[in-house]
Write a structure and sequence with these properties.
Blueprint (H helix, E strand, L loop, with lengths): L1 H12 L12 H13 L7 H15 L3 H17 L4 H10 L2 H16 L6 H14 L3 H15 L8
């Protein structure tokens, strides 16, 4: 009822509201996985938070209000999650193999943005990639691309 009233008032005033993020939106799962990778090493730096925000905003062409809503929904979903399966199964239903491989690349970019790569981050991305059906070869290729983009020397696979 309140939504109808708000819509009516907005139509009178000319105000526009972006579509709210609805439950079940697969982008929520992507944001939640980004947050889990960001926090995998035990701390989430501001540079990592900014990277997640900029990647999501650019990738989905969101304005600030829609981005804030999506990030909040992702944080809520992530805080309720007990494992990665809930998110990866949702992503597998909605995205192609190429899109899932690109997502793994985005996750590696989050890892490298602070200039460090931890064993926990490696493990988290390995697990996510496995659940997404992304091959080890593609996962490593995306890791190397992200390292090169960040100008960080690669070490052997953990």
């Amino acid at each position: 009822m309140f939504d109808r009233i708000r819509t009516f008032i907005d139509s009178l005033t000319g105000a526009e509201h972006p579509n709210p993020i609805k439950a079940g939106d697969p982008r929520i799962a992507i944001v939640a996985l980004c947050i889990q990778v960001m926090e995998a090493d035990g701390h989430a730096d501001d540079i990592e938070r900014r990277k997640v925000r900029s990647m999501i905003k650019e990738h989905y062409a969101l304005d600030d209000a829609a981005l804030d809503a999506l990030i909040a929904a992702g944080e809520d979903a992530e805080s309720e999650a007990i494992d990665f399966f809930r998110f990866t199964s949702d992503i597998k239903r909605h995205f192609s193999e190429e899109q899932r491989i690109d997502l793994v690349g985005m996750l590696w970019e989050i890892v490298y943005v602070d200039g460090e790569r931890s064993e926990m981050e490696d493990h988290v991305i390995w697990r996510i990639a496995d659940l997404l059906g992304v091959s080890g070869r593609d996962r490593i290729m995306k890791r190397q691309e992200a390292a090169a983009k960040s100008d960080i020397a690669e070490t052997a696979e953990h």
